[in-house]
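ingest -> validate -> predict -> emit
validate: passed (alphabet ok, no gaps, 63 aa)
predict: started
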Amino acid sequence: MADATDWQAMDDYYWDGPGGWRICRVRVDHRWQYELWSGNGTRYGMEATFAAALVLYDRVMAG
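emit:
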């Protein structure tokens, strides 16, 4: 299971994670959303919270 401590905050808008994965905070329809991106540049989804993006990361990694 991913832990927030596995992710390094680079600034207020993105976090670098294991294996080149990244979570980016973006503004959509006047709300903050968190996108999960793989190391090769594929966007895997968007979640309402950072914690939910970590859960999405776990699901993607579990296959």
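The beta strands are 8-9, 14-16, 22-28, 31-37, 43-47.
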